[in-house]
């Protein structure tokens, strides 16, 4: 794969959190226009990797290449301004603000809701009807699935080149998981590159193009999602379970 095909590439990334050495030389390639799944057991280092990409935790060694530029030393707001959006596992929804106010915070070019791109907002409402339904409701009053929709909607209220989402299906009902899969598929079709951490292997199988598996702070396998989905022995050896 040529460098031009890669939107994001990590090379030999180490991350320390206090006295703890969490990432041990991670390599990861995220091809442009694809959905890349990051899998692994709990505690493998997946969330630490996402937070390191976003500059929330600083890489102590190695490079984080964004379209050929090392961004490992940039501050988080600078990284976001490059066109990277991050939805953390806890969703980061502001509970006391309305759904509208949550999205407005992320729409940097808008001073009020009327200034949010109307066509984009209509598209978000089509992806996530609950966002429109609860537009004027406090986000903290919504269900877990509805909050997840608000979190993703907020991340895409402005055009993004890369969407990073940590465990989007966690705790969601099957019907909402299907809605989320459809939304990510539409985002991909619109040219958005997506990096997902996911524990739901059915979700991963239906959505992923490529996959990287982590264990003990290292990347232990990379390949296509189809290859992993079709190899039960490989699934057991990497993840301790099968699709």
TrEMBL record:
Keywords, ordered alphabetically: Amino-acid transport, ATP-binding, Cell membrane, Membrane, Nucleotide-binding, Transport
An example molecular function term from Gene Ontology annotations: ATP hydrolysis activity
Recorded superkingdom: Bacteria
Gene Ontology BP annotations: L-amino acid transport
Annotated ABC transporter domain residues: 8-241
PANTHER family: ABC TRANSPORTER ATP-BINDING PROTEIN, HIGH-AFFINITY BRANCHED-CHAIN AMINO ACID TRANSPORT ATP-BINDING PROTEIN LIVF
Family from the record: Belongs to the ABC transporter superfamily.
Record-given protein name: ABC transporter ATP-binding protein
């Amino acid at each position: 794969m040529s460098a031009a095909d890669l939107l994001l590439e990590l090379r030999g990334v180490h991350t320390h959190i206090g006295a703890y050495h969490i990432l041990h030389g991670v390599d990861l390639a995220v091809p442009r226009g694809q959905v890349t799944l990051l899998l692994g057991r709990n505690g493998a280092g997946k969330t630490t990797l996402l937070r390191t990409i976003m500059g929330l935790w600083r890489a102590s060694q190695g490079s984080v290449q964004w379209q050929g530029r090392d961004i490992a030393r940039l501050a988080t707001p600078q990284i976001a301004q490059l066109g990277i959006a991050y939805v953390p596992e806890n969703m980061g929804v502001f509970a006391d603000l309305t759904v509208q106010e949550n999205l407005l915070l992320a729409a940097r070019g808008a001073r009020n809701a009327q200034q949010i791109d109307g066509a984009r907002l209509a598209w978000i409402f089509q992806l996530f009807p609950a966002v429109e339904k609860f537009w004027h409701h406090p986000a903290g009053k919504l269900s877990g699935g509805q909050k997840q929709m608000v979190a993703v909607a907020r991340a895409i209220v402005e055009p993004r080149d890369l969407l990073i989402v940590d465990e989007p299906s966690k705790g969601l009902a099957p019907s909402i998981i299907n809605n989320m899969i459809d939304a990510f598929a539409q985002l991909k079709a619109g040219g958005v590159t997506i990096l997902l951490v996911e524990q739901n292997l059915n979700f991963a199988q239906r959505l992923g193009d490529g996959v990287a598996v982590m264990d003990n702070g290292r990347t232990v396998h990379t390949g296509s999602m189809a290859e992993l989905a079709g190899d039960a022995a490989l699934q057991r050896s990497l993840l301790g379970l099968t699709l």
